[in-house]
Sequence to fold (222 residues):
Amino acid sequence: MSAATRSTRGRRVPRRFLVGAVAGSVAAGALALAAAPAQAAGGPTITVLYDAVGSSTVRSTGSVVPLGPTTLTTVVSGDGTFTGSLPLPPQRTSFKALGLLPVTATVTFEPAGGKRQVTGTLLPGKVRSKARYYLRLSDVTVAGLPAFVGDSCRTVDPVVIPATTPKGQTFDLTNGGTLTGTYTIGQFATCGLQTPIINALIPGAGNTETITLTNGRVVSPQ
Fold:
């Protein structure tokens, strides 16, 4: 048999035919893989609601800010990605400045990025997500006296808060689960004369949050 041919059940097949067949198979497989994400992304979406409650600890002050109770609304696509909204009610918190002066303030989480400030991906048994809020401070008192920070005292940039399923735990679409994360608080602005003091006390990394989602319910398959 010559080098230019191969035998298949007694027939002599030109090598160029074999090469062409293999190349065609590879091309078809590549097209199928490329089409798969598009088909998944174009699949049906469902709206799922969860009861949500948790807390966040600000590392620099040691203060704890309750999160919720509230409702997380998610719109889940066929490929597992989702967007959502998590309105957080204003909460009162307190700490001691310099370890001495008692400070109290109302913390408001103002959604950034429109109505759907939560984005993420639902993976097998786990969730990866991020939420974006401006943090606004109001009704601040120091040693019982008003600090006069005004109504527009908030972070210059949105605070990005990641929330993922902790290692060793799982997340279920209907039963929910616990999500945790660590985030950074940036600089504040328009807090009047208190702006430099607030920026010396609050901003920084290593802030943590834990939120528990329960009672998942599908409200509108589409």
